[in-house]
Amino acid sequence: MRVDIVSIFPDYFAPLDLSLIGKARGTGLLDLSVHDLRTWTSDVHRTVDDTPYGGGPGMVMRPEPWAAALDAVASPAAQLIVPSPAGRPFTQADAHELAELPHLIFACGRYEGIDQRVLDEAAARMPVREVSLGDYVLFGGEVAVIVIMEAVTRLLPGVLGNADSLTEESHAAGLLEAPVYTKPASWRDRAVPEVLRSGDHGRIARWRRTESLLRTAARRPDMFAAYPPESLDKFDRAA
Ligand SMILES: Nc1ncccc1[N+](=O)[O-]
């Protein structure tokens, strides 16, 4: 997978040199390039923003540098991802979709955002997705891109040593993950649930599913409501 990130703060992406993403870059699973938007400015002050038409606070990112940057990094297979508080909620399903794509371009907006014409013009030649990570406002898109890059890269074949962990995790099956335990069996007078030490894999699987359902019902009624009803007939605490 090829990824191009365009930002006025390219140094924000140093974390993408670390850990499993850094390893994916080293092994060629991920071809990641980070670009400074100011590369595509032409004035001596390397200006990327200006005052908003219609007035209002803050500054808006000018179209010309963005258009030149997108022209420079685009490819016929590219899709443009723009993190924004005004975007559609980003979900695990989106992460799976993006992980299948050959080329992602991330545009990191700052200030009050990017001139809308940049997204409209880009949409005439490639798919454009404005995505939101949550109902809060960050300084810009950079941190959101790091989050999305983690969510997507870990799904790439060969990045996670144990691909099995992708099936059990929260949101994989539309439920939250069951609680996890490790040694010691008793710690500060708190014992690990006996079923998990029973060796009875059927009971363990049922216990985990029940805990997932209970946890989802308690913490994410929205997810629980969307969970296929036919799956609930197995809802049984007879673990
Ligand atoms: N919430 C956000 N705030 C600023 C930029 C991007 C954002 N997001 O969620 O992708």
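^ 3-nitropyridin-2-amine complex. The chain has eight helices and nine strands. Helices lie at 19-26, 63-73, 92-99, 116-123, 142-153, 165-168, 201-219, 221-226.
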